[in-house]
Specification:
Blueprint lengths: L2 H11 L16 H16 L3 E4 L5 E5 L8 E7 L12 H17 L6 E7 L12 H6 L18 H7 L17 E9 L4 H5 L3 E7 L1 E10 L3 E2 L11 H18 L4 E3 L3 E4 L5 E2 L2 E10 L2 H22 L2 E10 L2 E2 L2 H13 L5 E5 L5 H4 L5 E6 L15 H20 L2
Parallel strand pairs: 3-4, 3-5, 5-16, 6-15
Antiparallel strand pairs: 1-2, 2-4, 6-14, 6-16, 7-12, 7-13, 8-11, 9-12, 10-12
The chain binds zinc ion.
C-alpha cells in the first residue's frame, strides 16, 4: 500500500466531523464512531482481525509466525481538537495500517503479531482526561473519569454507553505487559525543526516533563481616580511583572518553554484597581531536573515581586508529568532504518504529549516525527508531503523487519 492511499484516507476521514466545514471529532461522538468504523472497514479489507474495547478503541491484529504471539502495537488516535487538522492522529493510524498491509500482501509473518491501534481519545478535549484511550490500555484509567461531565452536562459514563462502550468493563481494556512487545507511533512533528533542517523524518527521544500551576495574586482593590500611585497594591500589575518573569526564565534556559495561558483580573472594572488576579503557568522541559530548576527560579521571582509590591502570591499544582524517555533499543532500530533509507537520523524531544506517555507503563515505546508544513498543527492548515509519508512507510517497515530479525 502506498503513501497516496494514506493521503487519500486522511482526506476521506475529514467527512466525519461534528461541525460541518471544520474537522472536530471529540471522544464518544457519532463523528468519531463513523471515522472509527471507516478505519475498521479498511482494516478488514487488509485481512486484519478487528476488535473494539470498552472505551471504543479500535484494534486490528495481524498474527505473527505463531498464533497468540505477543504483539507489537503501532498506531495513533482518531479524535481531534475542535477545528483541527487531518493528519494529527489519523496519519499514525493509517501509516500503521499501510505498513501491516505490506506484510499481509506478502504473507510475511514476524516473530510477533502486529496490532494497529486507533485510540478513541488522546486530545482530552471533551473531558480533560489525558490519553484516555491509551490509559485504559495501560490499566491507568482514572478512578473519577467516568463521572466527569462535559460542557453540555453529559457524564462520560452516559456518553460512552450512547456510542456502544461499556463503562462497567473499563478494566477489561488493560493489556497484559507480557503480551506487549512495544509501541511505535508516527506523528506529525507539530513544530518547525525538521522542515527548517530539510529533513523528512526524525526520532523522538522522549516526551518532555510538564508542570502546570494555578496562581492567585492578592492585592488591594481601590478607586482608580482617588488612590495615589504610591502605595498601591495592584494585583494585575504584580501579575504582569510575573508573566514577564516567567517568559524571561523560559528564554534563558535552552529547551525550556514557559507559558501563561489564562489570566483573570477582579473585580474587572475600568475604574477599579484590580484586587485579585488568577493566572496559570505551563512549564515544560525534556529533563525533569532542569524543569525543577526553572520552577525554583519562578519561585524566587514570585517572592521578589510579592515583596516589592506588597501583594500575596500563592499557587496550586494542577498537574506534574515527569518526562517519558523513549526506549533506547527501539530508538537505535529507528536510527538504523532512517540511515538505511539514506537520511540522517535527527533526534527530537517531543514538546507535546502523546499516547507513548501512557503506554510506557506497559512496554518500551518509540515515536517517529514527520516533517509538517510550517510546523502548523491543531489547525485546518495542517499539511504533510506525500513523498515524506512514503519515506515514513519504508522506515517503519524496515524497522519492524529489523526488530523481527533480532533475538
Ligand atoms: Zn496527536
Amino acid at each position: 500500500m502506498d503513501a497516496d492511499t494514506v493521503m487519500a484516507r486522511c482526506d476521506a476521514l475529514q467527512e466525519h466531523t461534528e461541525e460541518p466545514g471544520k474537522l472536530t471529532r471529540r471522544f464518544a461522538t457519532p463523528a468519531l464512531e463513523a471515522a472509527t468504523a471507516t478505519v475498521e472497514g479498511w482494516m478488514r479489507e487488509t485481512g486484519l482481525e478487528t476488535r473494539r474495547d470498552a472505551v471504543r478503541n479500535l484494534f486490528g491484529r495481524y498474527e505473527g509466525a505463531r498464533d497468540d504471539a505477543p504483539a507489537f502495537l503501532i498506531g495513533s488516535h482518531l479524535d481531534s481538537v475542535p477545528d483541527g487538522g487531518r493528519y494529527d492522529g489519523p496519519l499514525g493510524v493509517l501509516t500503521a495500517l499501510a505498513v501491516v498491509e505490506r506484510f499481509a500482501s506478502r504473507g510475511e509473518r514476524l516473530p510477533f503479531a502486529l496490532e494497529v491501534c486507533a485510540f478513541s481519545d488522546e486530545e482530552s478535549v471533551r473531558y480533560g482526561t489525558a490519553y484516555l484511550g491509551s490509559s485504559a490500555v495501560a490499566g491507568a484509567f482514572g478512578d473519577d473519569w467516568l463521572d466527569r461531565v462535559d460542557r453540555d452536562g453529559i457524564a462520560m459514563r452516559d456518553a460512552l454507553r450512547a456510542v456502544g462502550g461499556d463503562p462497567d468493563a473499563i478494566a477489561s481494556c488493560a493489556r497484559n505487559p507480557a503480551d506487549t512487545v512495544g509501541w511505535l507511533e508516527l506523528h506529525i512533528e507539530q513544530g518547525p525543526s525538521l522542515e527548517s533542517e530539510g529533513l523528512p523524518i526524525g526520532v523522538v527521544t522522549g516526551i518532555q516533563a510538564a508542570v502546570r500551576h494555578a496562581w492567585e495574586v492578592r492585592g488591594m482593590a481601590g478607586h482608580a481616580g482617588t488612590t495615589p500611585m504610591a502605595g498601591r497594591r495592584d494585583a494585575l500589575a504584580a501579575a504582569a511583572a510575573l508573566v514577564l518573569a516567567v517568559e524571561e526564565i523560559g528564554r534563558a534556559m535552552p529547551d525550556l518553554v514557559a507559558t501563561v495561558g489564562i489570566i483573570d483580573a477582579e473585580p474587572g472594572a475600568m475604574n477599579v484597581i484590580p484586587g485579585r488576579v488568577t493566572f496559570t503557568t505551563d512549564i515544560r522541559h525534556p529533563e525533569d531536573a532542569r524543569l525543577a530548576e526553572a520552577m525554583a527560579a519562578i519561585d524566587r521571582a514570585v517572592a521578589a515581586i510579592a515583596g516589592e509590591r506588597g501583594v500575596g502570591i500563592s499557587s496550586t499544582e494542577l498537574s506534574a508529568d515527569p518526562s517519558v524517555p523513549c526506549d533506547a533499543r527501539l530508538r537505535a532500530v529507528l536510527h538504523d532504518a532512517i540511515g538505511a533509507e539514506g537520511f540522517p537520523a535527527r533526534d527530537l524531544a517531543s514538546g507535546a504529549g502523546h499516547d507513548a506517555a501512557a503506554l510506557a507503563a506497559i512496554c518500551p515505546v518509540a515515536m517517529l516525527f514527520l516533517r509538517c508544513e510550517g510546523g502548523i498543527s491543531h489547525n485546518p492548515a495542517e499539511n504533510v508531503d506525500g513523498l515524506d509519508v512514503a519515506i515514513a512507510l519504508d522506515v517503519m517497515e524496515r524497522a519492524l523487519l529489523d526488530l523481527g530479525a533480532r533475538p
